[in-house]
Write a structure and sequence with these properties.
Keywords: ATP-binding, Helicase, Hydrolase, Nucleotide-binding. By secondary structure, this protein is α/β, with parallel strands linked by helices. The protein is built from 24 helices and 27 strands. The strands form seven sheets. The chain has an eight-stranded mixed sheet with strand order 4-3-5-2-6-7-1-8, sandwiched between helices. A six-stranded parallel sheet has the order 9-18-15-10-14-13, sandwiched between helices. The chain has a four-stranded antiparallel sheet with strand order 20-19-22-25. The chain is globular, with a radius of gyration of 29 Å. It binds cytidine-5'-diphosphate and magnesium ion (MG).
Length: 825
Amino acid sequence: RRHSSGSESEPEEESHSSEEEKEEQKEEIEKASDSGLNAAEKPEESIKKTATNQQAVPSATVCQTASNKPSCKPAVFIPVDRAPEIQEARLKLPILAEEQSIMEAINENPVVVICGETGSGKTTQVPQFLYEAGYTSSTGAIGITEPRRVAAVSMSQRVAKEMNLSRRVVSYQIRYEGNVTDETQIKFMTDGVLLKEIQKDFLLSKYKVVIIDEAHERSMYTDILIGLLSRIVPLREKKGLPLKLIIMSATLRVEDFTENKRLFSAVPPVIQVDARQFPVTIHFNKKTPLDDYSGECFRKVCKIHRMLPSGGILVFLTGQAEVHSLCRRLRKAFPFQKNNTAGDDDKEESVEEIRKFKKSRKRKKAMTLPKIDLDNYSVIPVDEGDEDRDAETDDDVAGSDLDLDLGDADSEEDEKSDSSLPLYVLPLYSLLAPEKQAKVFRPPPPGTRLCVVATNVAETSLTIPGIKYVVDCGKVKKRFYDKITGVSSFRVTWTSQASANQRAGRAGRTEPGHCYRLYSSAVFMDFEQFSAPEITKRPVEDLILQMKALNIEKVINFPFPTPPPAEALAAAEELLIALGALKEPLMTGRPAVSEEETAKLKGKKARLLQMQRIWAGQGLLQKLGDLMVMLGAVGACEYAGCTPKFCEENGLRYKAMLEIRRLRGQLTTAVNSVCSDAGLYIDPKMKPPTEAQATYLRQIVLAGLGDHVARRAQAEELLDDKWKNAYKTALLDEPVFIHPSSILFKQLPEFVVYQEIVETTKLYMKGVSAVEPEWIPVLLPPYCHFGKPLENPPPSYCPETGRIRCHRPSVFYRVSWQLPAVEVD
Ligand code: CDP
Ligand code: MG
């Protein structure tokens, strides 16, 4: 093998650096990021390659500078025993043609960028090239990071299969889940996992190669990793333990990595993989449907299926609910024959399964479920009437009103297909169970046409074989964060030109294809060119805490590929200081209940409402509100043995429960190991809290979420009807409401603290707990002004009582809340 015959062998022994050395390294990193070192040197040699892709592609450069001597050339070639059909399939992948240039670039440079169309084989093949070239050993592994969990899991499975190696050798690690062993040599992980590893071992000494995959997605952790690795690579070089860094990306905007002078001391070479992309004809709609893009997708798929020759259809929608709803409509329109069970899915049971299900329901009805009543963690029998129903209103009569022309004069096809073919409809989104996701990689049952309805997970992370038609709604669901108000909301917006082009590209992987864009070309021209990196769009508090935990004091000087706005960093740091979070060493961000977790809780609504009331407890426990409900759910689940059945019956997400359990295990162990000397011990069995404990919990939450306090609208606000039942927060002019799903929705306590505000039809607070007003001056002094009333008091001021006002212009500048007097030393 041409690239694996290097004569230099690298030191086999790993150095185990002492604590002092680690400190030194951290200092060096800190210095490096402070002084903005590493201004890029000009490459001495550059080789340009042309790209076949119509998108802007960076020039490919191969450079060698004095500082980048060949340093890590393994001496051995490790044979891989692949199955013949696997070998045949991989030889067709465009990246195989580039193996030599990729390996030469890696041998000769510490940092290499590989850029290639989705599906060209980057993720599955580059780790195999490195393995064969001897880049792994008993002391060093290849680590590959993915921004999405689904990619980490499915790619490790795929690579293990291709290489015919055990999952003990090709493994994955995502948060709280993985199959990594001592034998692991190729490790797929989420970017967050590698970041955590850097906190423990700054030099990442167990890796010989780190591959940052899907770098174009510009997830926050990926960006931080690239910044950190730009410093770790030279440090490893200095120690004589070179680390190779490979950044892999779709053909999108890699200049942020290569031309960022603060990142790498020498411009890294960019290897462009020329993918065999077949032409894709783009069909724009003449008009842009304003709201019902999902209905428009349905109609377009129907037309394609009726009129166009065989070939898989891939539909891009924005979220899980839309995906399921379209799947249902399509399955109704093009049903499978009765005896055809190959396409079964979560909602599509075969006759046999339905029969079994009915039988089991009868059995269920016949027996009385045991009532578990462990103090406050009660479990009540499942109410058979509260099964999760499809709330779908089926307004589509398949085919009756369809215009068989593919609309908008956008079709030149005249071949007609057999419209009686069943459509094999599969959903695809990040949270779909891995075994259901795997279905899209398998050929559809004979005599059917594959139709995958996906979110943007199918844009670059996963490549579905056999797609000829893409239907692109042009939209994407994004989390928006208002830096001023601190409100996050999910909004469906137009996607970027780059991702629309990625979506279209999915149609031309195996033969010429067609992409139907459900919007006009004029609208496309108005799309932003690329989506902004995540780091510039989200709250930066947890980013700052992560960086501080890595001993990076001046976050503002960190070599981010795209730095977040300096004002946002400064404001976040101020907030963290006000909350007291930065005084404590190694504080981590707040554990938030994610939007997705809340959305799982949505199912089995009626039963959940019942359970909510039970879990909310009695007396003072109720004041802990939604947090008590969650605590009750976790406790009840724990007592029931945390089984999938319990979760299913009680509207809880099993995986989330497992995660909570593991996280709690970690925290209890940590706390018990620190506190045992003081005679403190946390019982891992998790008893329900006492009223006093629930009160402490409320105080802890208040102390941690000082900027998330809200007060019920006062008389002067109530003059305006829109303030009825509303709350006033410190940072918003608009009324906010307790979310209807909250246990405190009807109780409306005077003061509350909330976990987050989401914007739907109104601004809603979620994760709400009641707060006693007298706690505020005691627990949140930085937010209060203790002194005489202001000279120009706002209308709510009551001079007769002479009570102290809670006022601090920088935070509560719009609200002056009258609070009970407190004694202050
Ligand atoms: O990373 P990149 O997008 O360049 O390509 P890849 O993910 O390595 O995929 C290479 C090929 O492997 C594609 O044709 C995929 O369809 C195929 N593949 C597969 O058949 N099954 C998987 N689980 C993963 C990939
Ligand atoms: Mg990939």
